[in-house]
Specification:
The chain has about 240 residues and is α/β, with parallel strands linked by helices. The protein is built from seven helices and 15 strands. A hairpin with a 2-residue loop joins strand 14 and strand 15.
C-alpha cells in the first residue's frame, strides 16, 4: 500500500490527479491510498505520514513551498512532487529535495513519468525506514539516521545524527522488531547500536557517534562476533 496525499485547493485539479492515480492503479496493479487536502495547514497538523505528496504551491493560509520546508522537518523520506503553474519556483524545489515539478494542466503521461520515478524511490526507502509514533502524528525515520536506541523501562529513545532524539513508548522487543534487518547490534539490555556509526570498541565500551556506551560482559562475545561479521559482509 502506497499512501499518497494530494494537497490542492482547486477541486478540479485535485479530482483530475486522483483520477489519473486510479487509472494507473488499474493499469499497473499498484495499490494506492489517496487522501486529499485543500490547504497545507490541515495537511501538516496532524501529519499522518505519507509516501508521496503532490503539492500545489499557490494556496491560501500557507504556500506549498513553505509547507514543503515544514514537511521535510518531519519526514525526510517522503517524495514530493510540486504540481503548479509557478515553474519559476523550480530552483527552490531543490532546497526541499523535491522529486520534480509538474506544470498544470497535468497530463496522464506527464504524471506517470514522475510517478514511476517516485515509486522506485519509495521502494528503496521502505527497505531502510522505520515508522514511529510521535507526539503530533506518525514519524518516519531512516534507519541509517539512527545511531543507537536506548531502552529505559517502557521508553525508547532513538538517538539520531546531529544530536537529535525521538522518545516513544516501547520495549526492547519493540525496538528489535522495528529494526529487524537493519543490522542493529545489542551490546547490553539497554542499547541497540547501529554499526554504521561505531567509531571504535575498547574493552567493555563501544563509541557510537561520540557517545560511550557500555558492553555487558554476557553479551560482549556475541556483540563482537556480530560486528566482525557485519564488517566482513562489507558493512552494509
Amino acid at each position: 500500500m502506497i499512501r499518497i496525499a494530494i494537497v490542492e485547493d482547486e477541486d478540479r485539479e485535485a479530482s483530475a490527479l486522483q483520477g489519473f492515480l486510479e487509472r494507473y492503479e488499474a493499469e499497473s496493479g499498484e495499490n494506492f491510498e489517496v487522501t486529499r487536502y485543500s490547504n497545507v495547514v490541515t495537511f501538516l497538523d496532524p501529519y499522518r505520514g505519507y509516501d508521496l505528496v503532490f503539492l500545489d504551491i499557490v494556496m491560501p493560509m500557507m504556500n506549498g513551498m513553505d509547507g514543503a520546508g515544514k514537511l521535510r522537518e518531519m519526514d525526510k523520506a517522503v517524495q514530493i512532487i510540486f504540481v503548479t503553474t509557478m515553474s519559476q519556483y523550480a530552483l527552490r524545489g531543490y532546497e526541499v529535495d523535491a522529486l520534480d515539478f509538474i506544470v498544470k494542466p497535468v497530463t496522464y503521461q506527464g504524471l506517470v513519468f514522475d510517478l514511476k520515478r517516485a515509486l522506485q524511490s519509495i521502494a528503496r526507502m521502505k527497505s531502510m525506514e522505520i515508522t514511529l509514533p510521535g507526539p503530533s502524528g506518525v514519524l518516519r525515520v531512516l534507519s541509517s539516521d539512527i545511531t543507537y536506541v536506548e531502552v529505559r523501562g517502557h521508553k525508547l529513545t532513538c538517538h539520531l545524527l546531529h544530536g537529535r532524539t525521538i522518545e516513544v513508548r516501547g520495549s526492547l522487543k519493540n525496538a528489535q522488531e522495528a529494526l529487524e534487518g537493519a543490522g542493529f547490534l545489542l551490546c547490553n539490555s539497554c542499547y541497540l547500536v547501529n554499526p554504521r556509526h561505531i567509531g571504535r570498541v575498547k574493552d567493555y565500551s563501544v563509541f557510537v557517534a561520540g557517545d560511550e556506551l557500555s558492553i555487558s560482559h554476557p553479551k560482549r562475545k556475541a556483540f563482537l562476533e556480530q560486528l566482525t561479521a557485519w564488517y566482513a559482509e562489507g558493512g552494509m
